[in-house]
Each structure stands twice: as structure tokens, then as C-alpha cells.
Structure prediction request, 197 residues.
Amino acid sequence: MTDPVDLTGATVPTEGGRRSIVLIGAPGAGKSTVGLMVAKRLGLAFTDVDAVIEQRTGKPISEIFVDEGEAYFRDLERQVTLDLLRGGGVISLGGGAVMNPAIRDALTGHDVVWLKVSITQATRRVGMNTLRPLLLGNVRSRLVALLKERTPVYEQCATLVVDTDGLKARQAARQVVEALTGRSEPSDAEDDADLPD
Prediction:
């Protein structure tokens, strides 16, 4: 087990960088929820890239999209992601982060976990969440379009795939930890918790 690393806030100085566990996947896959659980089980720090962007800018992602546009947000996302990948720990990426070639290149050498989710499950989990600017309008049709574009890239980047359909959050986290460590993880009473957005 690695010593915990504080990944929040400013750049974490490292020598040569540290290996990170990076969660990728569509909106509704459970990256933030499962990532936090994986981090707790492994004694590592957890960071959500979107949360760090909001902290550093003082704005919700939805406002950044409205005020500055998607291109501006994607540049922030690239900067923050590359920064955090140098620090180690467990990191949840935004659903579209892997579409950036610099981020894809930077994922080399890290454990990249694709939390795979079907359109049906993603739609149910996301619902009509207006905080997801790329899903405004017809959520299902937007998810279909996003997954059509992104799924081949998720497949290309992933070193581990966990299909979250039919899984509770803790079950998904346990599968991730078992796959990464090669050891069996005990189930607990909270394994029936739903996988939220």
C-alpha cells in the first residue's frame, strides 16, 4: 500500500511522478463514488478533477461552460488533470477528459480503470441533472452520442474494465481493488448501497 498523498489544491511536487489509479467513464458510471471508496480501501487520497476545477475557479462547471465556453473548460481540465496525475492517489476524470491527446498520453504508466455503463443505466443514474452541461436537452440521445464517440477511446486507455451495470457502488469498488491488488476484499454490510450519479 502506498503512503497517502494529498492531491487537493496546488501542484504536488514529485520526483519522477507517482503511479495513479485513474477512473474514466461516461456520466453516470459512478467514477466519483467508486473512486472515493477505492481510495478509502487502499488508504490513498482521492481527487475528483471536476471538483478541483470548481475549487480553483470558484465556479461550478455548468457556469464555466456558460460563461467561458467548452474550449476554455477543456483547457482547464487538461491543465488540472496533468497536474494531478503527477501526484499519485486515486483520481476521477471527467467523462470527456480522455478525448484530449495530452491527457491520453499522460495516462501511460498509470492504472486506468474504465467504469463501463450501459446507456440505460447511465440515463437512469444521471436523470435530468442540469449540472452536466453536455447532457442538457434529451439526456438519453446526448448519452448515446457521447458514448458512441468516447467508447473506443475508453477501450484504448483502459488497463482494467469493470462493468457497473447491476452493481452497487461498494461492489464495483471491491472489484477494482481486488483486480488491482490481486487480493480478495471482504464484503461489508454497506455493499448494497446504490451507485449514485
